[in-house]
Amino acid sequence: MEMALKALAVAACYYAAGRLGLLGRVGVEGVVVTPIWPPTGVAVAALLVFGVGVWPGIALGSFLVITSLTTPDLTSIVTVAGNTAAPLCALLLLRAVGFRPDVSRLRDGTSLVFLGGLGAMLISATAGVAPQVWTGSLATGDFLPVWLAWWVGDAMGVLLVTPMLLVLCRGTLLPRRHTAGRIPVRRWVEAGCLGIAAVLLVPYAVFSSPSMLFLNFPLLIWAALRFELAGSMLCALFASVLTTFAAHEGRGSFLDLSNIEVMTKLQAFNGAAALTALLLSALVTEQRATRHSVQHACNELAELLEHLAAGEDPTESSGRRAPEAPDE
């Protein structure tokens, strides 16, 4: 019963994410695609958090999204199957390499990018586009551009949405760098400054007539270095959403561009932003964890040397007894 409720909750979240994603839809060779498809991120995060048992919720959510757009047919069933199989494949691949949901290592970030995102989403893109070619609703020559747009959109959903949802599930939006259990005031001040900078800089970079999208990257680097996964992915998601809106409206850097040019430029920016935020934050988190481990080991060694220099038994001072010598 509990798993069924979780599956229904996943279906509702999937459907809501799908409706939000469709707000930025564009047409490529007459087929509706989205630069960022958030439901794939919801699906992968749900499987990582709740397990394989919620897969019916993914299938139901995908079916509901499709029925909101068109009358379901055989191709819709294939698309639903692909949208369900791709996140499941992502879960199996990530489990096979020992992925940690906290993305605390560089290998976790690269695994999510290349296995969970770019690799597994090949299934959903192929299942979504190939049936349209088989039924004749899409010309064979148009398969590649539509497939590529579909694949990148699904992968961006994993790279941008999944890490953010995993952070929210952990409830650690602001990383702690202290031992007292409280977040210092200076951390809140810096977080506020980062938020103000994002609100001011990102819209300017996105909507300015000359292409200023590169101005987003110093902001992403600052967020990754100081606030790790939570800060970097939040900034990346904010920048990608605004950029997608500008592309949909044909404003700023996307003024007077064709649909193919808009999709190419938008996907290049979204991919670069997601990779920068995800991989850099994972690298920073791993290096800090290594430094803390080394520092802890050095402190223990220094304490041991102090006890030895004082002629004390270090095992007694730590509440442990030294092992007795075996009887001969």
Describe the structure.
With 328 residues, the protein is mainly α. The chain has two domains: 172 residues, Orthogonal Bundle (Arp2/3 complex 21 kDa subunit ARPC3); 127 residues. The protein is 73% helix and 2% strand. It is built from eleven helices and two strands, in the order αββαααααααααα. It has a two-stranded antiparallel ribbon with strand order 1-2. Helix 6 packs antiparallel against helix 7 and helix 8 packs across helix 9. It is globular and about 85 Å long.
Using the coordinates shown, work out and report the CATH topology of the largest domain. Answer: Arp2/3 complex 21 kDa subunit ARPC3
Helix content: over 70%
| Approximate shape | globular
Global structural class? mainly alpha
Organism: Streptomyces endophyticus
Membrane topology: Multi-pass membrane protein
Transmembrane segments: 42-66, 112-134, 146-168, 188-207, 219-247
InterPro entries: MASE1 (IPR007895)
What key attributes describe this structure?
328 residues; mainly alpha; Arp2/3 complex 21 kDa subunit ARPC3; 2 domains; two-stranded antiparallel sheet; 11 helices; 2% strand; globular; cell membrane; MASE1
Brief digest:
The chain crosses the membrane at residues 42-66, 112-134, 146-168, 188-207, 219-247. With 328 residues, the chain is mainly α. It has eleven helices and two strands.
Task: Give the helices and strands, then pairings.
Layout: H1 2-22, E1 26-28, E2 31-33, H2 38-50, H3 55-67, H4 74-96, H5 106-119, H6 121-134, H7 143-170, H8 185-207, H9 216-249, H10 259-309, H11 314-317
Antiparallel strand pairs: 1-2
Helix pairs in contact: 1-2, 1-3, 2-4, 2-7, 3-4, 4-5, 4-6, 5-7, 5-10, 6-7, 7-9, 7-10, 8-9, 9-10
